[in-house]
Amino acid sequence: MSSTGLYILCLFIYVKINMLNSFKKMILASFVLTSPYIYSSAYAEDNITPDLTIGLNYSLNWQAYKGRSIYHNVLPVVFYDNNTLYVEGDDAGVYLFKNEHHQFRLNILYDSNSFDPSGALYLLDQRRWSILAGASYMRITPIGGFKVQLATDMLSRSQGTIARASYLAAVEQGKWSFYPEFGLQWNNAKYNRYYFGVSETEAKRSGVLAYEPRQSIAPFASIAVNYDVSKHWSVFSSLEFNYLSHEQFKSPMAKKHSEITPSFGVNFNF
């Protein structure tokens, strides 16, 4: 691993561990498709200097929880890929295998889920963001990428595990780039109990009904749009939608079925 790559990975970990609020992934990356209108630089020759992109992102998060539900953040973002090490916003890791049809990664992810008690729920415990560690595999086809991912809580906050299966695409037309993704996410019972459960201790203290959710599966979708202003500067916007499963929505902490996170930002490509 190069010294530059190691520095970027350390910077990423430092920034993520010091975040206090949510930040969702804006730009999907790292695959190439054969259609003339669909392209990514992920499979550039190894002897080409890898791109480094840094930026600033402003995001809003409409949570599904009762009480205070709108949070906003201004946070830095980093994108880097040298075909061995990569950093993509809130996702960083190494490639164990990579070619034009397959990608297998070991990675760490920032899990932005959090809950700050307020209103009728102010006596409940706080739920905090965490760092997930896991692996992912993506199969790249002429019509898009098909990705599966497994990750578990490495900070032992929820001690939970999640799995995702999704379809991704990268469409470029002139200076515009579009990055849609949609799929399903599975949460195990430990993960759901931490973010949507109410313990007996909390129930006695707050008067809120105790609740112990089980595992769940729910859909999600996102779209990111990037516009190249110049050779080095670009602006982007994204919108992420997460739908609560039945197990999550039954929680006395939840007030609606969906969470929506729009974001806006600017990037500089070196």
TrEMBL record:
<dbReference type="Pfam" id="PF06629">
    <property type="entry name" value="MipA"/>
</dbReference>
<keyword id="KW-0472">Membrane</keyword>
<dbReference type="InterPro" id="IPR010583">
    <property type="entry name" value="MipA"/>
</dbReference>
<keyword id="KW-0732">Signal</keyword>
<keyword id="KW-0998">Cell outer membrane</keyword>
<comment type="similarity">
    <text>Belongs to the MipA/OmpV family.</text>
</comment>
<protein>
    <submittedName>
        <fullName>Outer membrane protein</fullName>
    </submittedName>
</protein>
<dbReference type="GO" id="GO:0009279">
    <property type="term" value="C:cell outer membrane"/>
</dbReference>
